[in-house]
Amino acid sequence: MAMGHALGPMGWDRMSSTIPLIRRWPFTHMVSSLEDMGINSGRLLTRNNIPEWQYGDAEEMVPIFDFLRGFECGARAIGSEEFGLLLAKRFGVSEFGSYGAAITASKTVFEAMRTACQLASKEATTARYWLIPQSDGYNFCRKQLFVTPETDHGLRQLEQYSLELMVNIVRLGAGPDWQPTTVFLSTLRNRFPTKQRQFNPEATRYESPHSAIFVPAAVLGLPIRKKAPDSRFCDMSMLEASRVDEDICDAVMEFLRSSLLIDSRNLTTLATVAEAAGMSKRTLQRRLAQKGSSVHRLYDEVKYRKAMELIDDPAIKIADIAASTGYEHSQHFINAFRRWTGLTPGQYRKTATVETGH
Fold it and tell me: How far apart are CA 141 and CA 332, in angstroms?
């Protein structure tokens, strides 16, 4: 089997200017797991000022810092430093949204690993996976690009979670009992859970520049054991076309769109966006200004696009569109719509009716 060259981590230099985001579905998994463990997730999130990102389209992007804080709070709530590991063990790769669907559609273990590497930045904008050839196999590597002291606890949980995901990808062909013979961890030995170690201590190397598991050559060509795909995640076009990891304006708009969906009454401010981005307000303002934009301008664009999605459906009342786009009063929405289009919503609908003949 021809396995080609090493698949390296692409686009690392872009991450300093963007907002860290992750697909919504891991957050949903986290919340459902907490509930199954007897934890009132709504109360836990509210108490720790974490938005309830579990609601909405699983493929939407949400701030990764809220996900990391959720990991930290979840670990505290269940009294275990292994919350990330427990979460990863509860869900199969096929349940990992479009990302998981793409991986499980692979023919071999090597192809599944390669797909995971190619699409990782579309799944979480600060994650990079890559393959390094060895004499008798490949190192399946991972690195988290955005690291701050404030998120250290959550990042340790994320490392457990991600490494178990990597192992589970190999197990798609190698079987449920497969374990890596060598594991590389970026964390210190005393910072990894000790009650139930995720991997054999004798096979684990600490303080590595990145996390990795070794996958022997004998495993790489094994066929993936097919399961019926989840029809909700069979269309890969949105995942593959996503470019939120490349542009600060795109990333901020994705965050603002998710904020609007979760609570249209939420008044998203420069401060809330900067917090989600892990930047100071001044830094965020400067980076957006370099692109000729601002949080206010991007939020206005998000509201405009949402309004245009709804306005063509005559069954939706203007007042409901106003509420869905974050306007408490219909007149404020009408004023904004006139600014966007030069017409009131009513005039726009009449024009559209004339043009279409319906």
Answer: 51
Residue pointed to by tokens 């991997």? 199
Tokens 């990891």 locate to 245
Q: Which amino acid is at 189?
A: R
Q: Are strands 183-184 and 204-205 parallel, antiparallel or unpaired?
A: parallel
The SS3 call for residue 7 is strand
Domains of the chain from N-terminus onward: 12-241 (3.90.1520), 248-356 (1.10.10.60)
Answer whether 159's CB lies under 8 Å from 186's CB: yes
Q: DSSP for 56-80?
A: S-TTSEEEHHHHHHHHHHHHHHHT-
pTM tops 0.85, yes or no: no
Distances in whole angstroms, Cα of residue 197 to Cα of each of 191, 192, 193, 287: 11, 8, 6, 42
For the beta carbon of residue 24, count every other beta carbon within 10 angstroms: 23
- Contact between 205 and 184 under an 8 Å Cβ cutoff? The reply is yes
pLDDT tens figures, 9-43: 544 444 444 668 888 888 889 999 999 999 999 89
Q: Token match 């719509």: residue?
A: 337
Token pair belonging to 61 = 């992007």
Report which of 132, 180, 158, 114 is spatially closest to residue 20, judged by C-alpha positions: 158
CB within 8 Å of 238: residues ≥ 6 apart: 59, 98
Ranges in the chain, pLDDT < 50: 1-5, 10-17, 194-196, 231-235, 243-245
b/e string for 26-43 if b means 16 or more Cβ within 10 A? bbbbbbebbeeeebebee
Contacts 24+ apart (CB under 8 A), 81-84: 81/156, 81/157, 81/193, 81/195, 82/160, 82/193, 82/195, 82/196, 82/198, 83/157, 84/156, 84/157, 84/158, 84/159, 84/160, 84/161, 84/164
